[in-house]
Amino acid sequence: MRVSPERIQKVKTGPYTKGPVVYWMSRDQRIFHNWALLHAQDLALDMDRELRILFCLAPGFLGAGFRQYDFMLKGLQECFTQARELNIPFDLICGEPEISVPSYLDNLKPAFLVMDFDPLRIKRDWQKKVLDNSRVSACLVDAHNIVPVWTASSKQEYAARTIRPRIHKKLAQFLEPVPEVAVQKKNTIDFPNKPDFYQHIPTHAGKPVDWIKPGTAAGLKQLDLFLAKRISSYSGYRNDPNREVLSDLSPYLHFGQICSQTVALEVQKNIDIHPEDKDAFLEEIIIRKELADNFCHFNPDYDNFHGLPQWGQKTLNKHRIDPRPYLYSLEDLESSSTHDALWNAAQQEMIVRGKMHGYMRMYWAKKILEWTRTPEEAISWAVYLNDKYELDGRDPNGYTGILWSMGGLHDRPWKERQIFGTVRYMSYEGCKRKFNINEYIEKWNNPGRRS
Predict the structure, then answer these.
(1) Beta strand pairing status for 21-25 and 112-116?
(2) Cα–Cα nearest to 139, from 57, 40, 48, 58
(3) Which of these, 204, 243, 279, 304, could form a disulfide with 237 (CB 3.0-4.6 Å)?
(4) How does pLDDT run across 204-252, given as a tens digit for each residue?
(5) In Å, how far are 66, 242, 248, 327, 349 from 364, measured between CA atoms?
(6) Angle of the 375-389 helix axis to the 341-353 helix axis, nearest 10
C-alpha cells in the first residue's frame, strides 16, 4: 500500500459491485502528489476495477465569483489533460453536489468512492447527504495536511505551541515524497469529451487576475521562484508589504493545485536556505496551516463569534457598549471609503489583486472590529469581504485569521483597552514603525502605481 492507513477514514460500507472506483475530487484539485487519488488507484488495482475521477462544479460556492472560478477551472482543465494522458477518465458534472453526485453514482454503480477530507461545514454536509442517498462503500483521505488532521490531534488545539510538538513528533513518518500516479490500462468505459468548464458559473465579484497563473505547473514554477529569489529574505521582511518576499503560494494551496507536502520537502532539502528563513517558512506552511484545519475540523463555529475562545468572547462582551470612534456600513468598507488611507489601500489591494498581504490582513480585520457595532457584525462582514475577493478565501486559514485578529483565537490576552478588551491591538502608528506606509498607500490608492 502506497498510502498510510492513518491518512484514510472509512466512512461507509455498501454493497459489492462490479463498477469502477471513483475518486470524487474536491479540495485537492491535482493529479500528481495526491494521496487521495493514489489510494483510489490502489483500490482499483486491488479490486481489479477501473478508476474514474469525478469533479462536481457547484455554482455559487460560499460567495465565490468569476475570479475564483476562473482560477479553479483553469487548474481543472490541466487536471483533465493530465488524467487523459494517464488513461484515467475525468468526469465533470455541474449542479448541487447533494443532488448531482448521487445521480452520477446511481448510474455508474461504483465499487468504491474515495473523497477528499475537508473541514468546512458545507463540504462535510455535501458528503453526508451524498452517502445518505447512495449505496456505495466510501472513505475519506486527508491529502491536504502533511500530518492527517485526525492523527495530529484528537481535539481542538488552542495554540500553535500545543499542536507544534504533536506535529513535529509525526513529521518523520508523514513528510515523505508522494509516489506518482501510474498509467491506467485502457478503460473499457468511453472517455468523456472535454467538458465546457465554464458552464453554469457566476460572473460577478471581480475580473480574473493576471498577475498569477493557475494550475499545478504554474504553482511549481512559483515555488521555484520563491526558493530562488525570495525565501532568503523571508524571516526578516515577511511582515513588510512593500517587500516581495512572500511565496504567493496560498491560491495554489487553497485550490489544492499543489500540496504543502511537496512545498515543505523542497524547502527542507534545500541546503542553500538559511536556517532562520527555512524555520520561519516551515512554521507557516506546516504548523499554522494545519492548526487552522484542526480548528475548523473540531469547531463548527469556525466562522462566527461562538468560535472564539471563552476569554475572547468574555472580553469582547465586556466592551460591547464602548463608544466607537467611527462607524462604517458594509458598503463603506467594500468601497474603501474610510478615513484611514492605510486600511483603504489594503482593501484596494484585495479587490484589485485578489490577495492582500498577510500582515495587512491582520490590520484590516482588527479595524473592522473597531469600526462596526458588534463583534458578530465585524466577523460576518470580514468573512463576506474575504470570501468574495480573495483567491484563497473560503478557507480554514482565512476563517482562523479573522478570528485570531478579532477575538484572540490561538493567541493570549494582552493589555486591556477600549473596544478590543484584552485582544491584541494594532494601530496605524504601529504600522508606520514597521514599514513605509506611504509607499504602500500610494501604490494601492493610485491605480497608476499598481502592479
Answers:
(1) parallel
(2) 40
(3) 243
(4) 656 789 999 999 999 999 999 999 999 999 999 999 999 999 999 999 9
(5) 24, 16, 19, 15, 11
(6) 40
- Is residue 209 within 8 A of residue 181, CB to CB? The reply is no
Nearest alpha carbon to residue 250 among 135, 356, 360: 356
Retrieve residue 314's grid coordinates. 468574555
| DSSP reduced 3-state for 263 | helix
Q: What is the pLDDT of residues 99-118, one digit of tens each?
A: 999 999 999 999 999 999 99
Residue 158 DSSP SS3: coil
**Alpha-carbon span 178 to 167, nearest angstrom:** 18
354: number of Cβ within 10 Å:
22
* SS3 track for 6-35: HHEEEEECCCCCCCCEEEEECCCCCCCCCH
Are residues 63 and 388 in contact, defined by beta-carbon separation less than 8 angstroms? yes
pTM greater than 0.90 (yes/no): yes
For residue 254, the tally of other CB atoms under 10 A from its CB is: 23
Q: What does the radius of gyration of the chain's CA atoms come to, in whole angstroms?
A: 22
- Residue 33: what are its φ and ψ, rounded to 5°? 60, 45
